[in-house]
Give the backbone structure.
Amino acid sequence: MSRSAHSLVPNYGIHWFRRDLRVAGNEALKWNWKQNDGRVVGLFCFDKDFLGRSDFSINRFQLFIHTLLELQKELRELGSDLLVLDIGPFSAFPDLLKKLNAKPNLITWCRDYEPFARSRDQKAFELFVEYGIECKDFRDHLLIEPEELSKDDGTGYQVYSPFSRKWLEVFQTKEVQSRLKNIKNANNFLEERLRGKISKNLFKLNWEDVLKSHNLYPDILKQYDVENSKKVTVEIPPAGSLNAFLKLKEFKNSLKDYGSHRDFPASQATSGLSLYLKNGSITIPQVIELLKLKPYKKKQSSQDIFFSELIWREFYYHILYRHPYVEAGCFLKHFDKIKWPNNKKYFEAWKMGTTGFPIVDAGMRELNSTGWMHNRVRMIVASFLTKDLLIDWRWGEKYFMEKLLDGDLAPNNGGWQWAASTGCDPQPYFRIFNPWLQSKKFDLKGEYIYKFIPELKNVDANKLHEPILKHKIYPEPIVDHGTQRLTAIHMYEQAKNYA
């Protein structure tokens, strides 16, 4: 390419999308846009190593594809574009740079906190320095990052209550409040888009302007969508930032009932936002701004209770960041000594929802048929797997990741270790959920159970919260809760004493 041809391409930037799949409120994209006067294009790389994980979910992948398609559509409407490559970043970027009329002067991305991602991003910095390209990463997935929240001795918090107090203290600083004020523009932008107003000239560059040829890369995103759609087993919910914003607005209208209804699975009073937070279709700051969440001292209102759940989410990310070994092992390391019986027949019954415990079976059938499970029921089935069936929590964690549309390493791992009493600030191992009492307390009339276990429709609701014997179709309980409870406590005490 001649010098004159190179000069036709002005300075421009590439934004490397990962878990920030939106335009509104994307500070890295915005900064790149400002530095290059609107000349920014987007890039996403499918990493085959990540897609080949043993806990890969075909259903969650389809939701991710739909999210990328929505992002691509949005960028094109705004004057930019998203190029999706079917190779990992360390093959994609060197290959791409050979096919550009001129290399970008800037590459931006948003930070990720999982061990895999942190290692990848350090290599990315080294790669771009080698190519002489400026690169910069930004906060996005967390409102308050681990380095910003430490105890007086510099270590991280391991108990939720002091963590949340410190988190709310940092939340009230000028720096954080300034970012929250700025995020209002992102929500206003989405409101305008919902009304059909599109800033067609927001961006001033697309991939055709910088690639040497227009046919260098196939449109693999649509290809993935078509091929993957034949394999999905659940209904895929609407994807993308606009649908995430609509979900948030819908939840705002029912937030007042969250505190009193959130634990009852039949009421479906939870936000459902985890689907969108995982991929960055929407962010914690956007949620806080639209819902007008305020710091609290005692959780009294529905707003306070919901705010505390968002802080739990950040807590588990901080734990994973500071203690990456929890990805594969117990946070409380002495519990790695537990000798789990791991009865495979019990595990299959748990997965299929045929344990003879209706509240557990309803939860697992909801998971298998919808890719979703109510949060209260997640706790019940996790406790049941580990402390009634005596199966390693990692088996359940992996199965959740295979099935959940909102499967997310940090909160999933944290939730499982909490239920299994192996994590930070966990449920004490001797306090074991009684599935019969949980069922009676949170699904007294059996509305949730009847929905997912139709063969019990003729069983009186009062009988759902005790062993159902001699039913024509539904199985009898595969274990006795009282007996298993004592065995579980003994297992934990043995491991604790061994340490």
Remarks:
- Confidence is low (pLDDT under 50) at residues 1-7.
- The domain at 333-498 is CATH 1.10.579.10 (DNA Cyclobutane Dipyrimidine Photolyase, subunit A; domain 3).
- The chain has 22 helices and five strands.
- The beta strands are 13-16, 40-45, 82-85, 106-110, 134-138.
